[in-house]
Specification:
Shape: elongated
Radius of gyration: 23 Å
Order of helices and strands: EHEEHH
CATH architecture of the largest domain: 2-Layer Sandwich
Strand order of the largest sheet: 1-3-2
Number of strands: 3
CATH superfamily of the largest domain: Ribosomal protein L5
CATH topology of the largest domain: 50s Ribosomal Protein L5, Chain: A
Structural class: alpha+beta
Number of helices: 3
Length: 99
């Protein structure tokens, strides 16, 4: 079963009210089932403000393939395997680079 991911849509502060209403209706009508959409105002006086819509959607096949490719790490190693390898590395206390 594919995993759900959170996606974002930003609408700049320089949008007319009519355009904003049209954008929001279009977005609402095209959201996937069980989207859990939220609308927030983000930003500040320096960088500007924007409306941000977040919602959940299913992963695309390409995203799922990339996640499977990189999820197991190098040669199927888990985080715990890599941690153990790092703990087994020999090291000497003292100055670095023989200085």
């Amino acid at each position: 079963m594919p995993r759900r991911v959170k996606d974002f849509i930003d609408i700049s502060e320089f949008t007319s009210l009519d355009d904003l209403i049209r954008y929001l209706e279009t977005i609402r009508d095209n959201l996937p089932p069980e989207h859990q959409a939220e609308l927030k105002i983000r930003g500040d006086e320096v960088f500007g403000r924007r409306l941000t819509i977040t919602y959940f959607r299913e992963q695309t096949p390409e995203e799922a393939e990339l996640e499977n490719k990189y999820a197991a790490g190098e040669n199927g190693a888990t985080i715990e395997d890599l941690r153990r390898k790092l703990e087994d590395l020999p090291y000497k206390l003292g100055k670095a680079n023989g200085s």
